[in-house]
Amino acid sequence: MRQILDSNPPSVYTQPEECDANQFISDMAAQLARTPLIGRFSYIYDYRVRALLFVSQGIEEVLGASPPSDRQTVEWLYDRVHPDDAPQVAQASVLVNTYIRQCPPEESFSQFVMAIDYRLRHAAGYYLRVLRQNLILERDLTGAVITTAAIYTDISHHKLTQDVRLHVNRPDFSAFVMQQARTNITAYKALSSREQQVASLVLQGLTSSQIAAKLHTSVHTVNTHRRNMRHKLSAPSYYDLLCQLDKQDFG
Predict the structure, then answer these.
(1) How many domains does the chain have?
(2) pLDDT category of residue 235 using cuts at 50, 70 and 90
(3) Angle between helices 173-182 and 86-102 in degrees, nearest 10
(4) Which domain holds residue 216?
């Protein structure tokens, strides 16, 4: 998971590298600390110094253990991702960071939310399903992310399937992913024309039933196409991620 942490920071920030939280971050941490987080925990992370500025007590309730230290919490969490989910979680995180970097520095990310759900190991050894929501708190003058907040919610009782689902609340994100996918010619050619068509409709936010109606076929056939898209690819790629993109609410 080191690629996730290395995918965002530039070599030099336009703001000084200070680990101490400014007033805005302090206020945000105080707000998160006051918010009742039953079945949830949160943290605020500073990319400049790779350290946490805040982590809530709920982490012990959800995962049954505390990390060895604040500085290691993010790595500790990534190490607990289910091995089958880890490639897609890493790829999704790198892809979102790439998307953010290509946006103009002056573009507002105040309402940006990335949500992804996957399996995370509990201290007792079993896996629970969590929904991770990432918010951008600060960007520097070049647009590089300085601080983010993350909220983890245990959704094990609401989601029983094992697929990884990704949602980004930006209207142009799907087009960005499609463009990135098309740069991978090998992966693109591995899919049939029908599978490419299904992928495009998935990116538009359509469910399997909606895609089936649009293509005048059955839901079973659409789900088979989506499953085959994953099986055709021997290594993680953007098209593997396309099958997991979701524009619907989690819950």
Answers:
(1) 2
(2) very low
(3) 110
(4) 173-242
